[in-house]
Every structure is written in structure tokens, then in C-alpha cells.
Amino acid sequence: MSEEKAKSGGWRQNKWVRAAIPALLLHCSIGTVYCWSLVSEGISKEIGFSKGAVEWAFSFAIFFLGMSAAFLGNFVEKDIHKSSLIATICFSAGMALTGLFVYLGGPGMPLHESPLALIGLYFSYGFIMGIGLGTGYLSPVKTLMLWFKDRKGLATGLAVAGFGAAKAIASPIMESLQKSIGIYTTFWILAGVYFVMMFVGHLLLAKPEGWHEPQGKGEKPSIIATLKTKPIGNYIGIWLMFYINITCGLALISQEKMIVKCVGLAASAGAISTVAAIFNAGGRLGFSAWADTMKDRNTIYKLIFILSIAFTVIVMVTQGIKTGEGNTLLIILVIALIMVVNAGYGGGFSNVPTLLSDHYGMGSISAIHGITLSAWAFAGLTGNQVATLIVNNTGEFIQHGDIKVNPVGYQNVLYFTLALYVVALLLCLFLVRPTDKALAAKEAKKKAAKA
Known about the structure:
The protein is mainly alpha-helical. It contains 19 helices and 2 strands. It has helices at residues 3-7, 15-30, 36-47, 51-78, 80-104, 115-147, 152-181, 183-204, 223-227, 232-253, 256-262, 269-291, 298-318, 320-323, 328-360, 365-372, 374-393, 407-430, 436-450, and strands at 398-400, 403-405.
């Protein structure tokens, strides 16, 4: 393509058409994995297994998301077209197979109450969809940063916000479909819809025409060599604070619905969940766009952890979850904590790729980002599971209307998240070093002061 045609704004060189829109199509599709809580209870009743057993399908999905991103990062780096196609096929196939196993496990069907139905659920929703999630999450990120070089945070935040907003968009649709056509048919219809959306995204997604991807040994250093350009403690700090942020977020978000009911807002639980999803998406976009204006993106993580610590301490001191029902101020504080944690949870995701690119460059960013997403995999197995363990083994369940709640148990989850948030803040302050850009700016400021 001639330089004149490229400058004329042809769609093949339009950053919105080639990066932003396909990223949103991919992330708004795969982000519906967070709608699991809307269907898990129905699936449990349909196939005849406990809700606790069924819940592992979601944990496996997040685990294989992180693991597939970690192991396939190099593959995504080399060919975003193949990786986005694999994401499209695996995610939609996993969703369709989930519907199939729910159908076969239904009352009167051959796999009802059979372990094969549960294993099939783990395989389809956990493993197959998990691979689609990992490759689909990674595929557009580097492309966005290449097209939006001056506003990398805004670009990645926009896409990752689509992942967070997917829950708010898809939740009412899934609830309506479940009531009208049943769970397994809902999965089949959505599998078709998301295949079309993701396939269009796959066709549109492309790196800038002028970008030369390093390929040879002399051009492209290994991931280990790239990470060694900074003290290894620097990367360990980034990985750990990312893991902690996700673990704390999942711990609270997994209990969010019951906490809301516990403080007397059962009738508004759905609306509050939607607003929380909006805060999650807003945090992804807002924190990352804000980071574009900072000399060191790590400052954003310091802000996220300080805000999370402050609101957690306030709710702990006031015993808001335990005594909040009927007290408007305490209810506001509890809801504020939920919104702050959701926003920080989302912001932590959107800032990771840009923080890594600032430290280690763009050459192997997809592979390094993929390895870092392994933190998400392990957090998916620990965050909600530890929170459930705390709730089930501390305090006591009491009747609250037509449900049982454990106010003390939910309150005790905050002790767990507070301790981890403090550790994460210390990592930010003392282990993750300033970027070269931040150090250069600091040095320039010193020279200007002396002059």
C-alpha cells in the first residue's frame, strides 16, 4: 500500500478497525466467562451434582486461561491470526459442548447424576474454553500497543474493559434466555453468536503494516534474556502483586452477592452486581488511561492498593457487613468497598501489559504477558476457594428471609484480603523498581533543580 493511501485513512491502516474494534469483539465475547454465577446453580440442579462440585468448572476455566496464555505466549507473538482463530474455535466450541453435557446430564437423560456429565463440564467449560480465553485475551493486546504507541494504556484499557463489561452486557440476556429456552439451549445460541463476533474480530485484527516482528536468534532475545535486563526481583514483584490483586478481588467478588443480601439489599442485588461490573470495566479503562500521564505506571498499583486498604479497614473497623443492615452509612461504606475493589481488580489487569512493556520493551511482550497471566491461573484456584473456606469455617449461618447468610464469615474474609493488600503495597514500594523512563525523568528534574 502506498504512503499516500495509508495517510488517506484507508480501513486497512485504521487503528480502530484493525485493533480497537477486533479487540472489543474478542474480549466482549470471552469476558462472559464471568457470567458463570448466573448459570452455576441451574446447571447444578440440571445434572444432579452439588453447586460446590459444579463451581470447579469456573475455577478450571480461569486456571487454563492463565496456563494457556503462559505456554502459548510465544505462539501468539508469532502469529496473531492463528491464535485469534484458535481462540474463536475453542471458546465457541467449549460453550457449545458445555450445553451438550448439560443436556445429556439433565433429568431422564443418560448422564443424569453421572460423573461423566461433571467431567464433561470441566473439560468443555474449564479446559476447552480456558484455552480460548487465554489465547483470545492475549491476541489483541500487543497489536493495540503497536497501533496506539502514545496512548498504550488507553488502548489496552479499552479492550480489557470489554472483558469486564461483558458481564454487564450479557447478564440480562443470559437470564432472559435461561427463563425462556433453558440453560443448554442458551449455551448453544451464545456459542453461535460469539463465534460470529470473534471470527469477525479475527478477520479484522492486524498489526501495523510497518511493524517488523523480530524472528531470528540475533534479532529476538529469549524471554529469559529479556527478563534479565532488569533484576529478577523486579519481575517477581510484578507477578506477585498481580496475583495478590486478583486473589483479593475474587475473594470479595465471589461473596459479593451474599454480602449485599446480608446488609438488607437482596432486592437490589442484581442492580448492584451490574454497577459493580461497570466499575470493574471503568477501572480497566480509567486506571490505564490515567497511567499514560504518569512517569511510572507502577504508581497506579500503589494507588489501587492504598484505596483498597483504606476502604477495607473502614468496613472492618465499623463492622459494616456484620452490623450494616438498617444503617444507611454502613451500607454505603460496604457498597463503596465493593466498587473500589472491583475498579482496582479491573485496573490491575489493564495496566499489566503496559507496565511490562515499559520495563522489558515490545519485542517479546506477548510471551512475557502470557507468563505473567499464570498469576491469574493460580489466583483463580485460590481467591474464591479461600474465601469460601473462611465463610464455611468461621462464624455461623443464620436465617435471613428465605436464605441463610454468615455475616461474621463475610466480615472475616476482609482480614485475609487486608493482609494480602498490605503485602502487595510493600512489593510495589520496595521490590518493583521505577522504569527507565521514570528514572530519566527524575534525573532530568535533579539537573534542572541544580541549574
